[in-house]
Amino acid sequence: MTEDEIRVAFLKELTSVAPDLDPETIAEDDHLQDDLDLDSMDILNLVTALHVRFGIDVAEPDYPKIATLASAVPFLAARMG
Amino acid sequence: MGVFAMPSLGADMEDGTLVEWMIAEGDTVARGDVVAVVETQKGAIEIECFEVGPVSKLLVPVGQVVPVGAPLAVIGEGEVPEPAPERMPAAAPQAQPDAPPPPSTERPVAPAATRPVRSPSVDVAAGSTMPSTADQPRATPAARLRAQEIGVDLSGISGTGPDGVIVLGDVARGQGAVPSPQATAPADKDPKAEMRRAIAAAMARSKQTIPHFYLSQTIDVQPALDHLATLNTNRLPAERLLLGALLVRATALAARACPTMNGDYEDSDFQPASDVNVGLAIALRGGGLVAPAVMQADRLNLDETMAAMRDLVARARAGRLRGTEMTAGTLTLSSLGESGAEAMGGVIFPPQVALVGLGAPQLRPWVVDGALQPRQVIHLTLSVDHRVNDGRQASRFLTAFDTYLTSPEAL
Fold first, then answer.
1. Which residue of A11, B23, B37, B134 has the smallest Cβ count within 10 Å?
2. Which of B144, B103, B100 is nearest to B122 (CA)?
3. Check whether domain B211-410 has CATH 3.30.559.10, yes or no
């Protein structure tokens, strides 16, 4: 998968967890919790969805690495390696 | 024969719009089956039926606004009652405050007889309205309060509630000139504004009727967080636990240990609940708050608690909560989540008598075994109804909660 494809897939899962978010308006550095208002249950649902979609298990200590689009895309790309 | 009636899904609910029938005439229903979806101020709620037997007749078409307590369907064999009254003003264009209420012919059953879990809340059922005096029109407390707030004279308003009682909606219409009969919900109702109104009414009622007092304690959550990290290390995302599950467990166990914190206060009487159904204050994205209950939380293990919370939050966000969940809470847990303010003194959700308010975890210097350590702590503020409890019982609850949370292996 290219980084662009990962970005699209990540945004799709994110907006499925939080349907009120508009993928067009999510900035690269928007923080999932601080800027987009996701709570711990939303984050867990997102991590679960990423596991189902990519087969990548993001461990709890790595949650900060998927906290923004800018950090999540390269992190997931590297994990898919 | 049984009559399935519009249940009350909250202290200030007066009516709901039937949006979907999930049964048809001729079907057979079992106790607890979801039979209809009703649109309320708190979103769409799935309504369970607690009658058993064949569905003889559906009395209300989809789209109709139905007052709390009015019949929706007949279950089993027997005589069919008259159809549910639509939300029309009483026959007289103006209220007749001095006239005695007409005999009730349209209400074959009292709401109390069909309400699934609890007795009707005090201001929605006809039988529990404010006592009528010679110069006071009959009105629900919510309607009376609203009229007072906006300076409307109740004697100029036609009541559309059971037996011509003036309900909240009548007061709102009374502000305009002519009462407008509504057989169906207006399409321009803003759900967010509706929910805000429902929260406003419930919270105002709580603060006006419940003498709150507050006790606080700071609790070391490091043991709980460490235990959680250990449990989650080898779990796949779908099986992971959140701190919230431990907090619900600690609340449920503390409530079981302190039965006077767990139950309802209605009609000047406290009724302890036999189960602990922990109401979970869930913030909805886009605004608003609902507090459905994790049922029998005292009997669930940690994994079952987490599964119940995941399910509840998902359905709260999707607008598919069930009627019993909305009304069966026996005390409420309100948590600020992982970041933000360190303390919150919450408003009790009537008719409950206690609310556990938790601030966000904070890293603080803490003395452990005589030495200073950086620890994650949570500030717990217990809001308590002073009509039922004193400081001693509240303090006992805090101690129990602290003990359970600091020995998380036992949760």
1. B134
2. B144
3. yes
Ranges of chain A with pLDDT below 70: none
A60 and B229: CB-CB below 8 Å?
yes
pLDDT of residue B128: 36
pLDDT digits (tens, 9 = 90+) for B43-54: 889 999 888 899
**According to CATH, where is 2.40.50.100 located in chain B?**
2-175
Distance in Å, alpha carbon of A43 to nearest chain B alpha carbon: 10
Angle of CA points B144, B148, B152, to nearest 5°: 95
The CA distance from B139 to B161, in Å, is 9
In CATH terms, the fold of domain B2-175 is OB fold (Dihydrolipoamide Acetyltransferase, E2P) (2.40.50)
pLDDT of residue B135 exceeding 60? no
> B175 by DSSP, 3-state: which?
helix
Residues of chain B with CATH 3.30.559.10: 211-410
Average pLDDT over residues B392-398: 97
- Count Cβ atoms within 10 A of the Cβ of residue B348 and give its class: 0-12 exposed, 13-18 middle, 19 or more buried: buried
Superfamily the domain A3-80 falls into? ACP-like (1.10.1200.10)
Interchain CB contact of A53 with B (< 8 Å)? no
Q: Per the CB < 8 Å rule, is A48 touching B238? A: yes
Overall pTM surpassing 0.80 (yes/no): no
**pLDDT exceeds cutoff 60 at B176:** no
Which among B317, B339, B376, B378 is the top mutation candidate for probing chain A, defined by the most A β-carbons within 10 Å of its own β-carbon?
B317
CA distance B52 to B31: 6
Q: Which of these, B316, B265, B128, B122, lies nearest to B201 by C-alpha position? A: B122
Q: Where are the alpha helices (DSSP H) in A1-81?
A: 3-17, 40-54, 69-80
The chain B residues in contact with chain A (CB within 8 A) are 229, 232-233, 236-238, 240, 242-244, 283, 285-286, 309-310, 313-314, 337-339
Burial of B33 (0-12, 13-18, 19+ CB in 10 A): middle
B70-87 per-position pLDDT tens digit? 999 999 876 555 555 554
